[in-house]
Amino acid sequence: MLNGKRILLIIAGGIAAYKSLELIRRLRERGANVRAILTSAGSHFVTPLSVSSLTGEKVYQDLFSLTDEAEMGHIQLSRDADVLVVAPATADLMAKMAQGRADDLASTALLATDKPVLIAPAMNLRMWLHPSTQRNLALLNADGISTVGPNDGDMACGEFGPGRMAEPLEILVAIENVLGRSVLLKGRRALVTAGPTLESIDPVRFISNRSSGKQGYAIASALAALGAETTLVSGPTNLRPPTGVKLINIESAQQMLAACERALPVDITVCTAAVADWRIDQAANQKIKKGEGGVPNLKLIENPDILRAIATHQTQRPALVIGFAAETENVVAYAQAKLRKKHCDWIIANDVSPSTGVMGGDENTVHLISMSGTETWPKLSKTEVSSRLAQKISGHFKGTAA
Ligand code: C5P
To answer: Known catalytic residues?
Structure first.
């Protein structure tokens, strides 16, 4: 996918810039040509010499340099690229991009391009969470700019939270997704369920579970990146809506089922939602008062099985129905049984024992189980699992007309 591709990498000023050097190496290993623009703030973190040694090209820094203009003008720089990647993308550069400002070489090249743009934000967590940055991010996403990360983690400033730049391999996958966009699954429709469901006890109380929704959001994003018209039906999460995906927010399992049925017909369904197995039979309309009649006796009834309902749909069964199986023991055996019980085509099975850190975490070791056998994938980030799954799905449809 990356072989022979021309990447224009813009390195802005942040401590994460050192990871961009690694990114250049990984891109070149895969046969990509990398040209870099280093902002003046960026050059405080990595030197032009390191960047040019790794790209094997001169580094572009100055909007008004006559030599640069003679060799390669800013318009030509973006015209010559297949994709523009901003890593790290600072709060300041994101703000400039959102406003369409062009006061240095990086922002000018970004404004002058009609090529796909991917940003890998990296900044202090409060800067990231600030309404201004979130507003700029929403504007950039609405303009069709793709985002990878940031991840949660320890930050150079000593704090912990969202703001760490995505790892080079994650950025690599995101670049592949951007480049592969609108090709492999063009003309296909996909439906993804994600997150927990929330089942009311009364107007203020509910039962739910710890699902973060990360895996489902990443899958919806990866399918959209390959060109599938993707609907994501999601329970309550803290995640940002993925770019290019139609997001439908619901709370309960019954609402999720109704939203999924409305989204049919589709070619592909991936059920990642942690649907609550039970709901309260007849949630109270008023808040249940403490002390009146002792502890309430909550009667639970079974929720609909959304995956099974879609996989056994009489008239609109999707061509490919994929479920997830989160287990804490006998992972593959239980998943094989689930494949048959739910009538789906593939099951992605994973071990969610607390020691694995999968629930709410960023990584996953999965097995892909189908009637024809089991494939075990290495430990991957949820983004990489999603990208691999989306590629696998596109392989399944290869050669059949959309
Ligand atoms: O039965 P279990 O919850 O282990 O099955 C997991 C798979 O079934 C997941 O793909 C999940 O999204 C789906 N599921 C569903 N509706 C339910 C329960 C599970 O779609 N009520």
So the answer is: 157
